[in-house]
Design a protein that fits this description.
The complex is a heterodimer of chains A (226) and B (297). With 226 residues, chain A is α/β, with parallel strands linked by helices. In chain A, 30% of the residues lie in helices and 27% in strands. Chain B is of the alpha+beta class and 297 residues long. Chain B contains 10 helices and 4 strands, in the order H-H-H-E-H-E-H-E-H-E-H-H-H-H. Chain B is elongated and about 100 Å long. The two termini of chain B are 29 Å apart. Classes of the chains: A alpha/beta (226), B alpha+beta (297). At the A-B interface, helix 2, strand 6 and helix 3 of A face helix 1, helix 2 and helix 8 of B.
């Protein structure tokens, strides 16, 4: 699913965001990407989404090589990925259903089916009563669940969540982490970057990859929080 | 159906909603832009209608290429007949016909139409008999030269001079039309590309989200293209709403003042102008949007 061989990401100002990372991630894995701020977690997710490009090494995501520039293949790759971020990236002025449908529109799904799939995804995250609520009227936790619904409605092979609990209180953060972990199955891999290591308890079978200053310092299965 | 077209087709409602939202968010700017485009298109339409009317006028006059010959008063009836026969032999002459003073009076009355009463002010028929000559238009100059040298001819009246003047006027209006078109195109492109840039800036976070979700460039750009076309088209509609009654009014006044002026029918003229304005506005809106999009990336 993901193959990285000696990847490096160096920004034009000389900052080495990632250095010589090699790893593979298979189908159906739950991976926590850990590390302090500035350790390279978000940079790695950007590489996986094709928003940044490695300055050295080889990277393949879902069989697609991430090379030097944005191509149509990279945009097609993103359609197979469900992105979730700390800022939610929801469209203001639109309701929850419209936001979830936006992720499906890009795939060219017929309108009737699109609405049904979006409602199903919102129901999966427990927001079946909020279809028509404008996102501004939702709580932070609900907004994040809308973003998760938008990601999973597309039945992605890979869910990439960048600090999904960053804006949430403890209860909501736990709920969101549990929710994301629940989408792991034979076909779907979930990668979550988080600082909330104390909330990782109770989610079985996960893998921890820890970065520090762009270098992988830990990669183990069944890891325990610090 | 190709996947991209299918995606665009399924999402037409969404794109329309996006355009509506965008215009609502910057309503005053969009309105001012549409009105500005409308006014400059109206000015362009005014010049173009002048150009078309003059061309029509010239065409009509050219089709009726004929000259009139007035003979000297002391010529006898026989001599006039001989003169007509002599003229008929000249190269380039198609037909020579003798027009009596009464027929000349009737012709003018016909041209004046409802204004013909003005002729009743004359106690006597003010018209004199003449020879009406149909000829090849391109032979006008040598024929007139020859006629002026023939004995017994007092005066040759040809419409070459007026044709030349009208042709010059038409050329001038044509040049003004092209210059106006270029100026309008440039101004519209600047306005539309600017408003699209503002629109892109206002919705940059939405664009980032769409990029994150893997939207194609076409999917992201389509609402902006629609927006640019719609604003320019609204300008086109405004220009049409202004030019149609203006043309009808001017047409009516000209008809009253100069009933013998061969004007094109106002319906035909306004229909052609409306078609031109609509096509032009949409085209300029599209190009302006593309410029706005490409200069923002």
């Amino acid at each position: 699913m993901i193959e990285a061989k000696g990847i490096q990401l160096k920004y034009p100002d000389g900052t080495m965001a990632l250095n010589d990372l090699s790893f593979t991630v298979g189908k159906g894995e739950l991976v926590y990407l850990l590390g302090p701020s500035g350790s390279g977690k978000t940079s790695l997710l950007k590489l996986l989404l094709g928003l940044e490009f490695p300055t050295a090494g080889e990277l393949r995501v879902l069989g697609q090589a991430i090379t030097k520039r944005e191509t149509n293949s990279i945009r097609i790759l993103r359609r197979k990925i469900g992105p979730v971020s700390q800022e939610f990236n929801l469209i203001k002025g639109r309701n929850a259903l419209e936001n979830v449908m936006l992720g499906l529109r890009i795939l060219g799904i017929p309108p009737g089916l699109m609405e049904a799939e979006a409602k199903k995804a919102l129901a999966r995250v427990g927001l079946e009563h909020k279809y028509y609520s404008p996102v501004e009227n939702l709580s932070w936790g609900e907004r994040q669940r809308v973003a998760i619904a938008r990601a999973v409605a597309r039945q992605p092979k890979l869910i990439l969540a960048d600090e999904p609990t960053g804006n949430l209180d403890k209860d909501n953060a736990l709920q969101v982490l549990n929710l994301l972990a629940s989408f792991v199955n034979e076909d779907t891999t979930v990668i979550i970057t988080t600082h909330a290591t104390h909330l990782m308890r109770g989610i079985p079978g996960y893998r921890c990859m820890e970065l520090n200053q762009g270098i992988m310092i830990r990669d183990e299965k069944g890891c325990r929080p610090h | 159906m190709p996947a991209t077209l299918k995606t665009l087709f399924y999402n037409l409602g969404y794109f329309a909603k996006e355009v509506k939202t965008s215009i609502r968010l910057s309503f005053v700017t969009s309105l001012v832009s549409a009105v500005s485009i409308g006014l400059i298109l109206f000015i362009l339409a005014t010049v173009i209608s002048g150009w078309w009317i003059s061309r029509h006028f010239i065409d009509m006059i050219s089709q009726e290429a004929e000259i009139s010959i007035f003979w000297e008063e002391d010529l006898s009836d026989n001599q006039v007949t001989q003169l007509a026969e002599q003229i008929e032999q000249l190269e380039g002459i198609k037909k020579v016909r003798r027009v009596s003073a009464e027929e000349a009076y009737d012709k003018m009355a016909g041209m004046l139409g409802p204004e013909a009463d003005i002729l009743k002010l004359f106690e006597l028929n003010p018209f004199t008999p003449y020879l009406e000559i149909n000829l090849d238009l391109d032979k006008t100059e040598p024929v007139v030269d020859t006629l002026n040298r023939l004995p017994g001819i007092a005066y040759v009246r040809d419409n070459q001079e007026i044709l030349n003047r009208l042709h010059s006027l038409s050329q001038l209006l044509g040049v003004m039309g092209y210059l106006g078109l270029a100026a309008v195109a440039l101004t519209t492109l600047i306005i539309i590309s600017h408003i699209i840039k503002l629109s892109i800036y206002a919705r940059r976070s939405q664009i980032q989200t769409l990029e994150l979700l893997g939207a194609s460039k076409g999917f992201i750009a389509f609402p902006f293209l629609l927006e640019g076309c719609l604003i320019a088209f609204m300008g086109g509609l405004l220009a049409t709403a202004l030019i149609v009654p203006s043309v009808k009014l001017v047409h009516l006044h000209l008809w009253d003042l100069l009933p013998f002026l061969p004007l094109p029918p106002s319906e035909e003229l306004t229909l052609k102008l409306a078609g031109l304005l609509w096509v032009l506005s949409v085209l300029l809106g599209l190009i302006g949007s593309i410029i706005g999009l490409s200069s923002t990336r």
